[in-house]
Amino acid sequence: MSRARCTALAGYTFEVTISPATGWVERTAFYALKFPEGQFPTIGGRLATFFETAPSYDIEDMNAVAWSFGSRSGTYIKAERSYCGDLISLIKGWNTFFSQSNTTDPAPPVRGDGR
To answer: Entry's InterPro entries (predicted)?
Structure first.
């Protein structure tokens, strides 16, 4: 059995869904961004078909795979793809780690530090 190494070109990011009513974390997802065509991690038949058939009209494709974990709706893998517009420029404009910028997201203020 051989293993292929798979690295997302634009890096990684994550999202957290928090209930505004309770403050509980309802879901987290870890995203690997900008996979080259045909160089995806093991994703199963349905997601492979999605990447094979979903068109992208962007100048530069953004193929992302995310592993999502939640207490109510379970764990799953999802796929996302740029399709119309210029998603890469939008992400780079956010000036975050996954846009490969030299700066980072601003740290939230800590209580009592006077910010």
So the answer is: Prenyltransferase_CloQ (IPR020965), PrenylTrfase-like_sf (IPR036239)
Q: Are 98 and 10 in contact (CB under 8 A)?
A: yes
Quote the CA–CA distance of 34 and 61 in Å, as a whole number. Answer: 7
pLDDT in tens, 20-64: 999 999 999 988 888 877 788 888 899 989 988 988 888 888 888
Task: Quote the strand ranges of the chain, DSSP E.
Answer: 11-18, 25-33, 63-70, 74-81
Q: Report residue 44 as tokens.
A: 């199963």
pTM attached to this predicted model: 0.67
pLDDT digits (tens, 9 = 90+) for 59-69: 888 888 999 99
Neighbour-count burial of 3, counting CB atoms closer than 10 A to its CB (0-12 exposed, 13-18 middle, 19+ buried): exposed
Edge-first strand order for the sheet with 25-33 is 11-18, 25-33, 63-70, 74-81
